[in-house]
Specification:
This protein is an alpha+beta fold. It folds into 3 domains: 5-173, no CATH class; 184-382, Sulfite Oxidase, Chain A, domain 2 (Alpha-Beta Complex), CATH 3.90.420; 393-516, Immunoglobulin-like, CATH 2.60.40.650. Helices cover 34% and strands 21% of the residues. The chain is built from 11 helices and 19 strands. Strand 1 and strand 2 (252-255) form a beta hairpin. It binds ligand MTE and molybdenum atom (MO). Residues 223-228, 271, 273, 314, 316, 318, 345, 358-359, 361-364 line the site of ligand MTE.
Length: 517
């Protein structure tokens, strides 16, 4: 191997090991050296591309951005290391490259992440690789470039060491979760905890219990998650505060303790992402514990003249604008399903806006600015219209053959024996949601929309912004059956039949599925 190849290989190894070392110590937290680069990648990606990536690639868009950021970060660190090798080559002092590369990569990482200690996990491996390089091949001890030709064995050993370190780091870093949320009683009271637990029990009771269909409350680790950034904030309670600014009589700032010292209550709330497919999986419900925004807003007192809307900002740089009226009904959640909010859902505090698309339910909320004129939010800037109330939807997620399942009893419909000996009992089920309008009725057609029958609905859960489950069973003759589902909201509006893609205003249409018997 000639010298410049050795230099390049040393620099590249240093880049990879710097990123790996950082991940081993920081995991997917903002102290990971790739986090700020990934945020820049997302920020610099034009809105049309982001939108296309969301529509075409889904979560793969995120992985792609992360991959690009990983490569970029390793490349930048490799560049630093390469410079260090060159500087070392010119110096008479041994290990100049090590000192130069270590210090430069440390300072650069501090500048990007603001975390001096965690940045040592970048500088350390970079320096170590440079030390091996200086000893082994890149730079001669006398300061001149070494002429030793590196054996194949040495190259393989070096490659193996880099790969091994990267593997070890991936394994170590994957376990680092950041804040670990405890029971919600830790920051509220036993009474609030008990109420949340009772509500969870009630949701289980009222769930139709259809196999293959998720319940009325989504377990926290299955609750969908949509973030603009690849790496979520990892704030602590002590550092968090919320300010209310702009067109108000009195600007306020309150910390976590002040927030939770006020009225704390529990609510069932459903969230749905405007970007999800018509029959998608980005719609879920939890019991949320939190504080109504109204009192806070009354204290700040928006200026009667003028104040129309609010801009809500978050720690991750996300921001959304929507009407003041929607904020008045909103809720600042500190708990989810009886525990404190998990990091991925906005720890320590997120906003919940009844009946509105998920995107304005700002996580890691930090500021509410009252405005006297409209402004575009993060997704509106990228072409979406997702700041208003949700569209009505009835999803079809379960198709069962209760007769087949030995442990499954079809319940109240069991005694309706099949008309024809060849007919088979088929059960279809799903969730329906219409925001604060509520769900009045779900109808099912098994003949492609010719005739309709009412589905059973789960008993409603308390609250004005909660989904319901529906279920329908019939005896199907052999053949293909085109099953169609449609919901009517609490105001009597049948959901529109016309199909629309999620972009830009949320999917519409009746979900249908062919069931073969
Ligand atoms: N700060 C912040 N808030 C955010 C987002 C985000 O990326 N950053 N994503 C929004 C979107 S698009 C949706 S659909 C919901 C999803 O909430 P969840 O991840 O808790 O399900 O959060 C919203 N709030
Ligand atoms: Mo969303």
């Amino acid at each position: 191997m000639n010298v410049s190849h050795a230099e390049t290989a040393t620099a590249a190894s240093a880049g990879v090991c710097g990123v790996a070392g950082s991940f081993a110590v920081a995991g997917r937290t903002p102290e990971f050296v790739v986090a700020p680069v990934a945020a820049l990648v997302v920020d610099f990606t034009p809105g049309v591309v982001t939108t296309a990536a969301i529509r075409g690639l889904g979560d793969w868009g995120h992985r792609l951005a992360l991959g690009v950021a990983l490569a970029l970060t390793a490349g930048i660190l490799a560049g630093v290391a390469f410079g260090a090798v060159r500087v070392g080559g010119r110096s008479e002092v041994p290990y100049t490259s090590v000192a130069a590369g270590g210090v430069a990569s440390w300072l650069l990482t501090i500048a990007a992440t603001g975390a001096p200690k965690a940045s040592l996990a970048v500088a350390g491996p970079v320096a170590a690789v440079l030390a091996v390089g200086e000893r082994g091949w890149a730079v001669g001890r006398d300061g001149r470039r070494s002429r030793v030709s590196t054996s194949r064995r040495k190259v393989l050993a070096a490659l193996g060491a880099v790969a091994g370190f990267a593997g070890f780091s991936a394994y170590r870093g994957a376990d680092i979760t950041g804040v670990e949320p405890g029971p919600v009683a830790d920051v509220t009271s036993e009474a609030v905890q008990r109420e949340a637990d009772d509500m969870l029990a009630r949701a289980t009771e009222r769930s139709l219990g259809v196999s293959g269909l998720s319940g009325l409350v989504t377990p926290t680790d299955e609750f969908y998650e949509v973030d603009v950034n690849n790496v979520n904030p990892n704030p602590s309670d002590g550092k968090w505060d919320l300010s209310v600014t702009g067109e108000v009589e009195t600007s306020l700032t309150l910390d976590f303790e002040e927030l939770t010292a006020t009225t704390v209550e529990n609510r069932f709330v459903t969230l749905r992402c405007v970007g999800e497919a018509l029959n998608g999986r980005k719609m879920d419900t939890a019991v949320w514990t939190g504080v109504p925004v109204r009192d806070l807003l009354d204290e700040a007192t928006p200026r009667g003249s003028g104040a129309c809307c609010v801009l809500v900002r978050a720690v991750d740089g996300y921001y959304q604008e929507f009407p003041l009226g929607a904020l008045e009904e909103s809720f600042l959640a500190v708990g989810m399903n009886g525990r404190r909010l998990p990091r991925g859902h906005g720890y320590p505090v997120r906003l919940l806006v009844p009946g509105h698309w998920g995107e304005i339910n700002v996580k890691w909320v930090s500021e509410i600015e009252v405005l006297d004129e409209e402004h575009q939010g993060y997704w509106e800037k990228r072409g979406w219209h997702g700041t208003g109330p949700v569209n009505t939807v009835a999803k079809l997620h379960a198709v069962n053959r209760p007769d087949d399942a030995s442990d499954d009893t079809p319940g109240d419909s069991a005694d309706e024996s099949a008309e024809s000996p060849t007919a088979e009992r088929i059960e279809v089920a799903g969730h329906a949601y219409a925001g604060t309008r509520g769900i009045r009725k779900v109808e099912v057609s098994t003949d492609g929309g010719e005739t309709w029958a009412d589905a059973d609905l789960s008993k409603p859960l308390a609250g004005e912004d909660v989904w319901r489950q529906w279920r329908y069973a019939w005896d199907a003759e052999p053949g293909d059956h085109e099953v169609v589902v449609r919901a009517t909201d609490g105001e009597g509006n049948l959901q529109p039949e016309e199909f629309a893609q999620p972009f830009p205003s949320g999917a519409t249409g009746w979900v249908s599925r062919t069931v073969e018997v």
